[in-house]
Amino acid sequence: MLLAAVGLNHYLLVGAALFCAGLVAVMSRRNAVAILIGIELMLNAANINLVAFDHFRAQIDGQPVIDGQLFVLFVLVIAAAEAAVALALILNVFDTRDRIDVDELDTLKG
Amino acid sequence: MSLAFLPDLSGLIPELIFYGLAAMTVLAAIGAAVAPKIVHAAFGLMAAFFGVAGLYAMLGADFVAFSQIIVYVGGILVLLVFGVLLTARTEASLGLERPLRRAFALTTGAVLFFVLAIAIDSTTFPAATEASEPLPTTSAIGHAFLDPEKMLIPFEVASVLLLAALIGAAYLARRRRSS
Amino acid sequence: MQIWLDELRGSVGWIGDLPAGFVYTIGIVVVCKIILVYASLLAGETVWLERRISGRMQARIGPNRVGPQGLLQFLADGVKLLSKEDIIPKTADKPIFLLAPIIVFVGAFAAFAVIPFGHGLAAADMNVGLFVVLSLTSIEVVGIIMAGWASNSKWAVLGAMREVAQMISYELPLGISALGVVILAGTMNLGDIADQQQGGFWNWYVFRGPFAFASFFIFFTAALAALKRAPFDLPEAESELVAGFHTEYTGFRFAVFFLAEYSAMILFAMLTAVLFLGGWSPGFPIDFDSGWGRWAGVLVLFLKTIFLLSVMIWIRWSLPRFRIDRVMYLCYKVLLPLSIFCVVGLAVQVLIAIAGIGTDSAFGAWLGGM
Amino acid sequence: MSDATLQTLCFVVLAAPLLGFALQYTLGRRLAKGGDLLTIGAIGASLVCSLLIAYEALQGGAEFTKTFGPWTWLQVSETSTWTIGITLDGLTAVMLVVVTLVSFLVHVFSTAYMKGDPKYGLFFAWLQLFSFSMLVLVLANNLLHLFMGWELVGLCSYKLIGFWSEKPAPCNAARKAFITTRIGDLGMMLAICILGGAVGSFEFEAIFAAAARGDIAEPWLLLAGLGLFMAAAGKSAQLPLHVWLPDAMEGPTPVSALIHAATMVAAGVYLIGRMAPMLTPDVMVVIATVGAMTALVAGLIAMAQNDIKRVLAYSTVSQLGYMFLGLGVGAWHAGLFHLTTHAFFKALMFLGSGSVIHGCHHEQDMRKMGGLRKKMPITAWTFLIGVLAIAGVPWITSGFYSKDGILSGAYGVNPLLFWIGLGGAVLTAFYMMRLYVMTFEGEPRDAQVHDHAHESPKAMTVPLIVLAALTLIIGPLAWHTLMLAPPTGVEPAALWATLQSLEAEHHHAGTVMWMAIAAGIGGLLLGWLVFHTRREKLAALKAPLAPLENAFANKFWFDELYDAVLIRPAYALGRAFKVLDERVVDGLVNLVGRGGVTTGDVSGAHDRGVVDGLVRAIGHACQRLGGVFSALQSGRVRLYLSISVGALALALLLEHLL
Q1: CA dihedral C169, C173, C179, C181 (to 10 degrees)
Q2: Which are the contacts of D220, defined by CB distance < 8 A and separation ≥ 6?
Q3: Alpha-carbon span D161 to D157, nearest angstrom
Q4: I want to staple D294 with a disulfide (CB 3.0 to 4.6 A). Which of B162, D102, D321, D583 is the partner?
Q5: Which residues have a Cβ under 8 Å from the Cβ of C43 and sit 6 or more positions away?
Q6: Selection from C336, C269, C357 nearest residue C307 by Cα
Q7: What does the pLDDT average to over D63-87?
Q8: Chain A environment of D641 (Cβ under 8 Å)
Q9: Minimum mean pLDDT range among C160-174, D295-309, D403-417
């Protein structure tokens, strides 16, 4: 067989890759929006793992397992809330300082 | 005329789709992480979202897959792009990263992925004896969300969270105009 | 779809000899092609329809030269657009500029996969069909914002901003009023939703009580706005923004935007017909499982779609454009509260029907959906 | 009426004002007209139910007693349960009617009196809570439950007296009232602890039964009785805890009518009346003596007051003294009956004075009034009825019946107490006539006040008329029909060796009756003569009595006494401690400190030479290192993240490789 049958490991690997990509973004980027992008990637990596575990457990149990999917939906909600607030903050920072380089945001004063 | 000599590739189709989606997801994610232009990063993120949604669909989570599209692509991504557009005037949007830090981050990311891959590969997960069709989950999710013994309270709390985020974001963005 | 392919394999000998997976793969490709051609043709003819109707309304004739009554006008237009010079602005962000029309096109066309064109005639008979349509149409937003940004032109950016704000705003009343139908039908499978409205025309969801009736109008209005059709055509208001987000696009890329726009119109017309106007029900009981009945159903749905398209065109050429703040006002302060009210009303209605009257009686079943 | 219905009625009686308070407190500001209609409706509902209960009690006669509950309130331990419950008997029924009726009329009165006040709605909210607490107190069937109502009453009186909290005087008055009654409450808590400990239950029935069986040791029973009386004296402003009541006149006048005439001060009398079966003869003596003294002293003070409300306040203290006298001599019925009648005519007079104050644009000094009868006839005539009632004008006023009962009770027990009471009666009639004459009769003394005076609106006069009518009819009516049941358990008669029988108490023994009549009428006539007819001779009359008047006017220097005996010593003690603290403690500390300094000097030299060298070396090393690490402490979370993730990755990698 040219390609191995797709199992849980494959999904977990995709998740790990996604997570590492997000981590790289968070670690190396200076732009706040880009950091947010990295965070979203990491959240998605976690979501893939959740759904994958769900799916393969359902295959073992022979009945639908939805706990992981429910978690994913909550993560979606939180990601949406986080993105909205974070972007509002970024816009605010941009408004007062005319830049959004997080390395320069090291004082507590506006 | 018999055409049976054609190879039966049907068993390979899911694999092909998976590898396609996985490649798309990972490449897009890496693009999002390192693209010099933030806008390109944002659209890389979109491709990654699509790939993840596709993976969800492959895992039989159709509701989650389309939630992913409607929320991430239709909502969060649009917000992000708006954020990029509204803050695009400075050189920071060009992501002139410090090379040393980027090298460090890339190395760390690669090492971490390497270690994780080894860890995943060396773990044996219990596997189903025979693969079965994914079962529909939409109505189960709906019932779980409205069942007081399951997820009703988290669901309601999540709605409160969204409301709070809405108000908070609106407030923060509003101050901006007054100044 | 698998069922048809199984039927096909059973009935036609040489197809049956082929490996199953091969047939499925080829079958998927073929069906996609059919849908694409069907939708594109319809879109092209809608352009013709629009031009003819607007001509009538303005006491002109409209295109009538190419083909009978000018029916082949779109082919001529297509040839013209294809042969035009393909310009990419120098300051444009090239990869995104090239990708944007494709995204928009995919968003508009992919949703046709779950639309049933007749009884059992959906390419993908998914049980989250309605949800799929709504989520796929939201992809269009991203394509538009890409186009607007990549063009590096103030007209395009402004148009895209307006459009995005308008589309994501109107997705709320759109989705919520569609939710009313989901409550009545108890499913998001579009084929099942249409099947539940068979029988007399009074079974159509639009006629099931005042809330459903109101939901229909909310849905249609929100759809108009999401389609940025007049009177909500601010994003491409030619008198202000030249042409909105596709100002910088020419030739075939422009054609793709154009096609996507009209196919989105058809998509929403069909969706409205399926959700509220009984789908392929002609208004009296008919057997859709028989061969001719199925194709009669396709025809009925086609006619309803054309009717709704005509209404859209009629509205476009009758009403003046809104101001942007009025558009947002209408969305957030009128349609959104109304749609929420209707959903709650419908939920109560269904509860009353189930708990109070009982769905085993004809009236209860009518009131409670199913 | 079935028990279930009665129970429901009781609940309605309680729930209506509580609900009224909750709604009024939260929504009051948004309701039409500040929500006064809501609260009047609530207390009205309570009143109607109370009347129904009273009617039922009347039907049941002397034997009428009902208990609902007890319901578990707190499961303190596995064996001990604290309960709440409701007791209904003749006494409760009468109190219910008194409380709700007066409260209802005060509500109505307040709509006009408080009109335009910025905290209009809040006032009604507190009135509601006050009524509720009083009803809780009255309906309680055990001491702990009663105590809840008792403390709630205290809280509400605090809020109501200090209602105009933007002014300092009401605040001080409210604090004074609160603290003074709190001293009494100490006795109450003591009594509760003793009784609860000895009986194992707080329920009245159980306590009375235990007292009758002699289960409670004598000194403890005595102590509990004294504690209860201490509480009652605090709440009902008896000597020497009476000082708060006159000051409490700083509150709005309807509040004075409600809580300082009819209800809150009645709580103490009610408590003693309710607990009568367990009080030992010694306690009764104390009660009677204190009551008589209070009646006399407060009457004397009242004669020399010029503030219209203060006269009424001292009169109230005096009348409460009568009630305790009645209870103390075993004239249980008469004492509680006086409570009822007094509630009506004193509420009448307080509301009447409120009407006067309102009419004179918040002028309270009687010396500036006079001749107001023509300006405000309704107020004047109704007030006159009150005056006649409190003086005990025979047969037509209710005051006659109750006061006569008390006096005849005292007559049979102890002549001295009787004579004090009789003297007090003369005083009462005298100073009330003085009050009436100075306010309503004669020539106007202050033209400005007089010219601007006007009759009050209907919302104020109608309650006055209702109360006046009640004052007239309640005596004859109630005396012959509504006989209060004696408390179950021990007959009060058994407690005082020389106590008259109950029948004799009702029987207006000729002598006593005529003496009482003579005292009342005589006092009134004297007052009329001195202050109206022979006014010109007043000054001449006053001169020799000046020292006495001075004593009265200064309230026998009670406040000064407390200031000198309690407050100043407390301050002095505080100052003494301060001095102690500054001199002795600080001196010690300083001494130790100085010792420390000396030691420090010695060791400092050592430090600088030996230790510092080492420390500096280490310090320099640390500084160098710190310079390296402070680059990491940049406050940038991403840097921390990078470092920690890098370290994690490295650690995992090493773990894998090794």
Answers
A1: -140
A2: D194, D198
A3: 6
A4: D321
A5: C259, C262, C263, C265, C266
A6: C269
A7: 78
A8: 26-27
A9: D403-417
Query: Can you say whether residue D564 is alpha, beta or left, with left for phi > 0 and alpha for psi between -120 and 50 degrees?
Result: alpha
Contacts of A103 in chain D (CB under 8 A): 636
Residue type, C37: V
- Per-residue pLDDT band for A109 (boundaries 50, 70, 90) equals low
Residues facing D84 on adjacent strands: D71
Instruction: Report the distance separating Cα D363 and Cα D307, nearest Å.
Output: 9
Least trusted range by pLDDT, from B32-36, B74-78, D551-555: D551-555
- For D649, nearest residue in chain A (alpha carbons): A20
Residue D390 predicted with pLDDT over 50: yes
pLDDT-derived band of residue B179, with 50, 70 and 90 as boundaries? Answer: very low
CA–CA distance, C125 with D27 (Å, rounded to integer): 55
Given a cut of 80, whether residue C233 has pLDDT beyond it is: no
Look at residue C21 in the predicted model and tell me its pLDDT: 67
* Highest mean pLDDT, choosing among C45-59, C101-115, C337-351, D471-485: C337-351
D641 shares contact with chain A (CB less than 8 Å):
yes
pTM attached to this predicted model? 0.54
CA angle D19, D20, D26 (to 5 degrees): 90
Residue D1 has pLDDT above 70, yes or no: no
Measure the CA–CA gap between C156 and C249, rounded to whole angstroms.
10
Residue type, D576: A
Q: Is C19 on the interface with B (CB under 8 A)?
A: yes
**The pLDDT value given to residue D496:** 34
Q: What's the pLDDT at D399?
A: 75
List CB contacts (< 8 A) between C146 and chain B.
43
The average pLDDT across D254-278 equals 83
- Which of A23, A102, A106 is opposite residue D645, by nearest beta carbon? A23
pLDDT average, residue stretch C3-18: 69
Q: Which residue has the tokens 């149990």?
A: A61
Q: What is the DSSP string of chain B?
A: ---TTS---GGGHHHHHHHHHHHHHHHHHHHHHH-SSHHHHHHHHHHHHHHHHHHHHHTT-HHHHHHHIIIIIIIIIHHHHHHHHHTTTSGGGGT---HHHHHHHHHHHHHHHHHHHHHHHHPPPP--SS--PPPP-HHHHHHHHT-TTTTHHHHHHHHHHHHHHHHHHHHHHHHHHH-
Average pLDDT over residues B32-60: 86
Residues of chain B neighbouring C149 (CB-CB closer than 8 A): 39, 81, 85
pLDDT in tens, B109-119: 888 888 888 88
Which of B70, B77, B87, B139 is best to mutate for the C interface (most C CBs within 10 A)?
A: B70
Express each pLDDT in D104-117 by its tens digit.
988 888 888 888 77
For residue D417 the two structure tokens come to 């107490």
Interface test with B, best of C29, C104, C114, C149 (most B CBs within 10 A): C149
The C-alpha atoms of residue D361 and residue A49 are separated, in whole angstroms, by 80
How far apart CA D278 and CA B62 sit, in angstroms, is 79
DSSP character for D198? H
3-class DSSP state for residue C248? coil
Q: Please give the pLDDT value at position A47.
A: 92
Q: DSSP letters along A72-107, please? A: HHHHHHHHHHHHHHHHHHHHHHHHHHS--BGGG---
Q: Quick one: tokens of D485?
A: 């049941």
Omega before residue C89 within 30° of 0, cis: no
Chains touching chain A through at least 3 C-beta pairs below 8 angstroms are B, D
Residue range D9-34: average pLDDT? 81
How many angstroms separate the Cα of D335 from the Cα of each of D293, D326, D341, D409?
16, 4, 10, 9
Interior angle at CA D341, CA D339 and CA D346, nearest 5? 90
- Give the one of B61, B76, B93 whose C-beta lies nearest to A83's C-beta: B76
